[in-house]
Amino acid sequence: MSSAADVTTPTLQSSADDFKSPALRRTISLVQATKLSSDAQAETAHTRGTVVNMVKEADLFGLQALAREKGVSGESFFMAERDPVGATALHLCYLFHGEKHYEIADWLMAKYP
Question: How many domains does the chain have?
Fold first, then answer.
């Protein structure tokens, strides 16, 4: 019988290879991948020039310039970038609920119905 001292508790720093159970290895790998993805998404919210940052800052002119620069011809560009919890640019406009954010939402819906 194993004692509590024999049990290794997984952490985000653990390697999936540190554990014998295939299910536990898969779970650790998934948690680590999700954490890395969340960190990257959080960074986009603070990085100037990203869609999420421009919506946060209510920068309609910046979004329009970005759309022209990228030659965006569909909603996929604005829908692909998400905030740390998965909200799209349109969703963020309503979450921030400022007058300028509503203008951005109107523009997004008119440009990409």
Answer: 1
